[in-house]
């Protein structure tokens, strides 16, 4: 049986709920063979980030080259990239290896407030990496940082999506987890039209790694040859179920449940069968 494959370029979360660990679990659950290039090691748990150790640039480069020169990939997902040197390296490798199906999750700040991206790196993210992406998946604070204006209403979300699209990315997904109210809306813009996926806001503190999980599910579905719109539907459902059937792990903001989609999704969607 042919297996599609995906590469995550992101930070390690020792607590297992976000970063590389969330990405690989999501790839596995969606039937995609997962590979990784680690950009930084975090000492992290459900209570927060204790420390961040960036990986030397040449070690990141060698991980990416090792994957590219032997295996290749059907999709790439980027998460925590920490500084502008790492962003420039990742952009150069995506260009060199002509990778498409690139999902850029512009990770900036962990839910507990720790910085996962240096401020000096925002320009490189905007001008070097985002233009290479098939889809970017900012949450509201990340979209505010990238566009420079505050976002509250649906019209402002649409305006932010148009602005981000003008940076050169093909599709923008504005995630709605940080909004207010009981209804939660994720918005996709493809340069022409807007599409929304709505859900109830689930009442839980266990949302550590939702953004990573969402973007990894997008990458896995794209790796399997699905359209961006179909991948959006799968990613939304994957993360919704992962939050709904949350796990009681840790004393703080616990991880999501990466088994939930296979256990509670429809059999047709689960594991790509
Ligand atoms: N409480 C919640 N209930 C249901 N879905 C949620 C909840 N929080 C986040 N999500 C979903 O998880 C995904 C990640 O959203 P968001 O929290 O905005 O991103 P991030 O984790 O990057 O901050 C989105 O698809 C969003 O709709
Ligand atoms: C290594 C790493 N990468 C990303 C996140 C963001 O997590 P979230 O998806 O909760 O915003 C994190 N906390 N740690």
TrEMBL record:
Annotated metabolic or biological route of this protein: Cofactor biosynthesis; thiamine diphosphate biosynthesis; 4-amino-2-methyl-5-diphosphomethylpyrimidine from 5-amino-1-(5-phospho-D-ribosyl)imidazole: step 3/3; Cofactor biosynthesis; thiamine diphosphate biosynthesis; 4-amino-2-methyl-5-diphosphomethylpyrimidine from 5-amino-1-(5-phospho-D-ribosyl)imidazole: step 2/3
CDD domains associated with the record: HMPP_kinase (cd01169)
All copies of domain Pyridoxamine kinase/Phosphomethylpyrimidine kinase, residue ranges: 13-257
Pfam families on file: Phos_pyr_kin
InterPro entries reported in the protein's UniProt record: HMP/HMP-P_kinase_dom (IPR004399), PM/HMP-P_kinase-1 (IPR013749), Ribokinase-like (IPR029056)
Protein name: Hydroxymethylpyrimidine/phosphomethylpyrimidine kinase
Keywords: ATP-binding, Kinase, Nucleotide-binding, Thiamine biosynthesis, Transferase
Any GO CC annotation of this UniProt entry: cytosol
GO molecular function: ATP binding; hydroxymethylpyrimidine kinase activity; phosphomethylpyrimidine kinase activity
Enzyme Commission identifier(s): 2.7.1.49, 2.7.4.7
SUPFAM superfamilies the record matches: Ribokinase-like (SSF53613)
Protein family membership: Belongs to the ThiD family.
Catalytic activity field: 4-amino-5-hydroxymethyl-2-methylpyrimidine + ATP = 4-amino-2-methyl-5-(phosphooxymethyl)pyrimidine + ADP + H(+); 4-amino-2-methyl-5-(phosphooxymethyl)pyrimidine + ATP = 4-amino-2-methyl-5-(diphosphooxymethyl)pyrimidine + ADP
One annotated GO biological process: thiamine biosynthetic process
